[in-house]
Request: fold
Amino acid sequence: MAMGTANFYAEGVAPLLIDNSLAILNRTGAYHIAKDICAEFTPEHGRVRYWRLGSTMPDGLIRKIAARLMMLEISWLQDRGICLIDGRNSDRGIRVFLDPLYVLRSVLTGDDIVLCHDVGPLTHSILYDRRTAENYRRAYEKIRRQKPGIVFVSEWSKRNFTSLCGSDFRFLETIPLYVRTELFDGPSEAVPAANGPFFLTVGAFETRKNQIAALKAYRDGRFHARGIKYVLCGPRGDGHKQILEFAKNTPGVVIPGYVPDSQLRWLYAHAEAFVLPSLLEGFGMPALEAAYMGLLPIVSEESALVEAVGGLCVQVPPTDPEAITRAMASSLSRSSKERESTGSMLRELALCATKQQFLLKWKNLLLGEKNAPSPFHAPDTGVGAGQSLFHAP
Reply:
């Protein structure tokens, strides 16, 4: 059975070692989360490690080369017990891995901690290339054998993990993510092509984000003929070519790509609704960001996205463009009073998900600050995380 949390950084125990090898490769939301955890606990309580580069985080071209070499090593050696990063002089104390993949090239014991965003490469392997899925499968198998403590970003991810790996771990703890409020501080800058009303999707152009289904819903709903546009913004990822080709051939779609924070603020503030019928999310940060701005999320049913916004959303089957079309049309038909009421509830919920509360929960776990408050207190809306306040007709 899973054990309860405890003070894992006690007097006489060696300092923490936080493995943030993820930062060499990943520049998505997980990168910012890892960066904040490292800043909170190092150097006062331990040190950070970036693969074989020690505590030095590379940048620019050097980072890209290091990322390439790191992934080659992982793919070639996988979980073999040779040439481990800390194989000769294994660090005493607690290792905290900020992504499961990087346990492959390190010592891993039951005393360590692994942060799990999702188990998508296992449950949705079709959305990943073969090598990535195989590497994560080996990483999770190593984790299953050693049974370290596991931290999840959502109860949804925790349920998926335990269905595959069981619950016999030192502990299984959920620490929900938070809104980066600095994103919304500062001036706003309009996106010129997004003049007039529009729907908004924020997220990497990836197959798992399911943008093509949302684009089909927009096209088939003939929203362009009604003067409603659809803005897609985010970095390029796996499957971006097909998504961009479909988007460019759909009238009314605006594709600014990766936008600066000033433009993202403006988009969240002026959209009619936020649309993300994703096939896989470990948490769903863009939906929570939309909630912070009072913007109605239209998201995949029974997903981590629903949990992220406390059920204050419209849930849709992600593979049913007709249902997505109905949800988009319904969002446009809301009265001013309905929009104001929904926006107020969404903002209240999102305001509770702060970085300070997130880090307090991590302190409670690692440093034993038992009086730290709970990291997330959603307002009482009468709606559970598995329910939806709104339903597409």
In short: The domain at 16-174 is CATH 3.40.50 (Rossmann fold).
